[in-house]
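Known limitations

Files may contain more than one protein. Parsers should not assume a single record per file. Below, a two-record file is shown to illustrate correct handling: read the sequence, read the token line, then continue until end of file.
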Amino acid sequence: MPMIPTGCNYVIVGRPSATDTVVAVFLPSPRGRWRSSVRPIAEMNEAVKWALLMSECMAGPIEVIPYESEEALDYARFAADAHQFAFAGHTPEVRAQGHDILRNLDNWENIRARRQQ
């Protein structure tokens, strides 16, 4: 992924593919990163311009990442959260639930149903 330096910081920009429909902007946070916005892929240039303007105000890099769909973005975020629970959970029960989710990520329909309960 290209990194655009901006003085004392930088912006990470993902390369869009032909099937991407949305672009997400992630800001740095003490716990990793925080999704600040999701826009149609047609607005990717505006998202990059905004990130370049804001990067000097942030404690870390801003990421502008294209995704195939909002559901693909949700899946990626859910997988990242499950990974965190599996390896950094505070209790053995939380870690076990995280491992169970990671083992079953190929069955997104069941995971989505469990999340909505």
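...continuing to the second record:
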Amino acid sequence: MQIKDFLGNPITAGCHVVYPVRRGSSMWLNRIKVTQVTPTQVTGYNADKRLTHIKNLKNVVVVTLPDGIPTDQEAAAPQGVEGQ
């Protein structure tokens, strides 16, 4: 079974994903580089080299796939259009 992000892109080891974080009334996105994918969680390291386990996979979005493979949204974007 292939694990997918919120937009339907496959989550694989080596890709970068972002996920929402909330502390009090503040919200932001954290980014990790995925090292392991299981049916129940995604594991990877953030920019501070801290090991992170994400269990709520409904909120994860793939930013870059391994080896620069474009996401489904990038592949569907019209060529030559900037800033959208």
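Parsers that stop after the first record will miss the second one. For reference, the second record is described as follows. The CA atoms of residues 23 and 81 lie 37 Å apart.
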